[in-house]
Amino acid sequence: VEVDMIAHNAGLSALEKGGEWDKALQVLRLMIGRHVEFATIAVNAAISALGAGREWEKALKLVTMVAQLKLESDTVTFNAAMSACAEGNNWEHVLQLLHMMTLKQVGSDTITFCAAIGACENAHEWEKALQILCMMERGKVESNTIVINAAMSACEKRHEWQRALQLLSVMRQ
């Protein structure tokens, strides 16, 4: 019985949910070695598994491999990699990925900006957090309480309470 792309993707998804990043990479390598046709969804699952395992450097390598595999990066690809970098406290890489999304004209969503602002919050980079919040508004991406709270928290951590209050007033509108 030939194992097809759907079975591999299902396996990768299960490994992602189980946090088995090392096994997810093995399956992905196996797929490449056997020339199994696969889609971006397989790489996205592996990137997510790496993020769950705090293996942000490997997640970044997979993002760069997407083009080599003749696949298209999508919003999920970048969101997974951004989340992996954010989990690893690498806010600079998160911002680089956000910039790469813009260059490649990959759409962003609330999850994208939540990961970016959350990474800035953890790094106490309140100015970057506010810049990203402005990007979000310019891109007409709907914000939510989590995003605004993360930006407010970034301001609070640097004693920029007036800016945090401004965000609070915006949130109430």
Structure, described:
The protein is mainly alpha-helical and 173 residues long. The chain is 75% helix and 0% strand. It contains ten helices and no strands. It has helices at 5-17, 21-33, 40-52, 56-68, 75-87, 91-103, 110-122, 126-138, 145-157, 161-172. Helix 4 (56-68) runs antiparallel to helix 5. The model has no long low-confidence stretch (mean pLDDT 86).
Q: Descriptors for this entry?
A:
about 170 residues, about 0% strand, mainly alpha
Number of helices: 10
Strand content: under 5%
Mean pLDDT: 86
What would the principal axes of the Cα set say about the shape? elongated
Structural class of the helix and strand makeup? mainly alpha
Helical residue percent? over 70%
Question: How many beta-strand elements?
Answer: 0
Main sheet summary: none
Low-confidence stretches: none
Could you give the order of the helices and strands?
A: HHHHHHHHHH
Task: Compute the separation of the termini in Å.
Answer: 59 Å
CA radius of gyration is: 18 Å
